[in-house]
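User: Is it possible to get a 3D structure for a protein together with its bound compound? The compound here is nicotinamide-adenine-dinucleotide. I've pasted both below.
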Amino acid sequence: MNWVGGEWTSGSGTFHDVRSPYTGQSLGRVYQSDAGDVDRAVQAATKAAREWALIPIKERSQVMYQFRNILLRDIETIAKCISLESGKRVAEGKAGMMKGIEVLEFALSLQNLQEGGRMEVSRGVNCEYRREPLGVVAAITPFNFPAMVPMWMLPIAIVLGNAFVWKPSDKTPFTSLAIATAAEEAGIPKGILTIVQGGQATVESILDHPGVASVGFVGSSAVARSVYRRAALAGKKVLALGGAKNPIILMPDADLEMASRGIVDSFTGCAGQRCMAASLLILVEDEAKRGEKILEEVVRKASQIRLGQDMGAIISEQSVARLNAAIERASQVGAKILLDGRNTQAPTGFEAGYWLGPTVIDHVKPGSEAACDELFGPVMSVVRVKTLSEALEIERASPYGNAASVFTSSGAVAQRVAESAMAGMVGVNIGVPVPREPFSFGGTKDSKFGSGDITGMGSLNLWSQMKKITTKWSVSSDQNWMS
Ligand code: NAD
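Assistant: Yes, that's possible. Here is the predicted structure of the complex:
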């Protein structure tokens, strides 16, 4: 169903089946909105945006504060919905919601932060910045964080005074209904949050619609690149976040427990289906084989993970087949599979779901598919090098630039990695280096098309514009005050 102008609607066009990754069974159908649906949604949003922009930011923030409280009250129910449709564990759904609520709380602080600025630039002349909303803005989001990723954008865009049109992934459309219900109860005015369900054609209608001023996109790099191009050609502001192949550099002096735990959590959390998952371990070898011991511990810990309890499911049957084929190809080109998730038992009663256990592939060659491509599953490729410089060369050569981490006990090594890595988000002894607000979220290279970031102060220009006002008042004077 679409949520347009405060009403649930759907047309008579095409619907797609949505299946739960846990059971493979149908959860329902999602409507594929066409250009007419998008136009009606943007018209309703445009009407609502005019009024909303006139309300002072402090009052808009009050409404959003109610929204925060309702989301917190309903977090268990929403997390269960996230889990059911995306395959995440309920705890992961809840963690994603909490991160989204953190962004909402940052948005609430904008009433005190985003005032602009004013200066006397000449005698009797003042210049002033005024941050203004854009009108109707849109967000297009991926399947893997059905609540968190939209919540990176929704609160900031709405607090800044825009109407927000959201196109969720058509693989995970149902969480958006729970969020719209919470928004309605909070008193977010009709038309300020709009949901249009659909896939590629729906996205293209949004990108082409002249009534949409700005677009935030999060998804795979190929789609991010084309969305960026199309929106920019249409004259919109646009920021498009793409995929990732995040490396962890494992130094021989790393703490065994901290490193092995951090590495396992990073590549198995959300079943590896997150843009901050590490999927490449660059092991810096030493004579005492300390890195080797940490790798053994990684394999031991990962082998204890129980599907359905410690790790969730893969989004679709096609994704499992794609991952299985990539693992097979890696072994065919000489890599050694230390832990083969293809053999992991599916949880009892959930055999028809989409499963792959943690997989560790050693002796992967730099430049090969397993070392370079985003596989998007619980698969860790291990590349072995002799020096930190070689490790950094691999990091810097990647077309992606989302995250990079190092596990080490050396401050000097940590500093060198932090300064030399090209990724936008760097971790030291942290496997998933997601910055907390107000530090903004965003990568570099093919992980992000456009400028700014998707959260924090770095996102404000995506959802607003700065007007410059120059003022001079006539005063009784015997000289011209304007210099
Ligand atoms: P996807 O690119 O397939 O889909 C993302 C969105 O685009 C969905 O709403 C989808 O309906 C729509 N879409 C799909 N194909 C399209 C097309 N050809 N034209 C226009 N729109 C299209 O991504 P996904 O599989 O849903 O999500 C996983 C990907 O997202 C991974 O690559 C992951 O790394 C990335 N991701 C990145 C970040 C980040 O912050 N950089 C965060 C989460 C996910």
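Residues 90-113 form the longest helix (24 residues). The longest strand covers residues 125-133.
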